Structures are given as C-alpha cells and as structure tokens.
Amino acid sequence: MSARPSPTTALPEALRAAHQSSGGGTIAPMDSSNTRRDATRLKLFEAAVTLIAEQGFSSTTVDEIAERAGVAKGTVYYNFASKNVLFEELLRHGIEMLATSLQAAAEEVADGGGTRIDALDAMIRAGLDFISRYPALTQLYVAELWRTNRAWQSTLMVVRERAITVVEDVLREAVAREELSEEIDIPLTASALFGMVLVAALDWQSYQPDRSIDDVHAALSRLLQGRISGRPSQ
C-alpha cells in the first residue's frame, strides 16, 4: 500500500481544496489580496490540527500553536480572534472539503449513467479516501461531534448538516427513481451511512492498518448493496 501523506503535509492542500467554488470547481485563494496572510493562516491551521490531534483541544495552548507554526503569539490573534475561532474555522474548512468530495463522487457516477446506489457506493469510497489522506482532521471532528459542552457546538451542527445533506440528496433521488423503497427513513439512513464510513475508516486506520483501502471499501460496499439497496451481496 502506498505511503499516506502526514497530516501536516496534507492539511495545506486540504484547506486550499476546501475553497473550491460550488459551480465550476475552480480553486480560489483564501485571500487573493494578501498571499502572505494566506500562507500564515495555513501554517496556523496545520499547527493547530496536529497539536490538537496529539494532545486534545483543552491541552493545546495558543503559545504552542504559534511555536509549532513558527510565528509570534500575536500572529495567531491577528488572524483569528481566539483559539476557539481557529478551531471552528478548521472544522468548517475540513468538512466542506469532505462534502465537496462526496458530491463530486456522486456527480461523476451520475454523469456516467450509473444508479444512485452506485453513487452512494462511490461516496463511500470518496469518504475513505478523504479519511486516509487527512486522518488527524477526521479524528478531531469525530472526537468533538458528540460533545455538548463546547463553544463551537452550533458550528459542529452546521458542518455535520452540510455533509449529511449531500448523502440525503442522493437517497432522495434513489427513492424517486424507485431504486429504494419510499419507506426508507432518509435522514436516519444518511446519518447511518456517514457514521459507518467515519467509524469504520478510523477503526481501519487505528487497528487494521495492513488492510488496503480496496479491501475496506469492498466490505462496506457489501453492506450497502445487501442492506440498503436490498440486493444480495456479491
């Protein structure tokens, strides 16, 4: 299996990709008027995601983020009002990139004439690819998702809804095309599929790293085909 990029190497690419426009897919800079500030913000995001993944949000200080990023402490506050704001922006960028990736996978299948079930399967693969490339960012999201005492709880709800809605849209199309029963609970099924990919992928990364992504995808694909679509697993 090919070597995966480290979270610190992958994050700048992730943040740039998160700024793709929803229509044409053109990558837009974070702030075209100030490329130096863009680069600084990327360094801060990179430092924050790495440190928080290593030692948790509460244990990570602004001083540590600044030191890891190689900037002065005041630079952190110049770009972000607080550590909380930095973390919220990190979540927004990461989940937006994931949602964009899922949507692109579904659209590619649709353009090729595939079914909506095929599109859901492609979204599973896209989710696994994302988590494989950006494990630290995904671990942060999952760790915070079910906590209710965080200042950014409302942000978590918004970014979760963004990702879940992409899956819901494909499920609704599948029902409209009679590929799935109209009795299916779309919101719950979308949440189940999204959660399945997150948990299975992190378990794979942590406890079964010798398995290939193709192997993991095949296992989840059989669950989709046999349970969601009602077709027997192959």
Q: How is this structure best described in words?
A:
Keywords: DNA-binding, Transcription, Transcription regulation. InterPro entries: Homeodomain-like_sf (IPR009057), HTH-type_TetR-like_transc_reg (IPR050109), HTH_TetR (IPR001647), Tet_transcr_reg_TetR-rel_C_sf (IPR036271). With 234 residues, this protein is mainly alpha-helical. The chain has one domain: Tetracycline Repressor, domain 2 (Orthogonal Bundle). Helix content is 71%, strand content 0%. Helix 1 packs across helix 2, helix 3 crosses helix 4 and helix 6 packs parallel to helix 9.
Uncertain residue segments: 1-33
Q: Rg, please?
A: 19 Å
Largest beta-sheet characterization = none
CATH architecture assignment: Orthogonal Bundle
* Computed structural class: mainly alpha
If helices are DSSP runs of H or I spanning 4 or more residues, what is the number of helices?
10
Q: Give the termini distance in whole angstroms.
A: 24 Å
CATH H-level homologous superfamily name: Tetracycline Repressor, domain 2
Q: Summarize the amount of helix as a percent range.
A: over 70%
**Quantity of strands, as a count:** 0
The pLDDT mean sits at: 81
Percent in strands: under 5%
Order of helices and strands: HHHHHHHHHH
The level-1 CATH class? Mainly Alpha
**What would the CATH topology be?**
Tetracycline Repressor, domain 2
Morphology: elongated
Tally the structural domains: 1
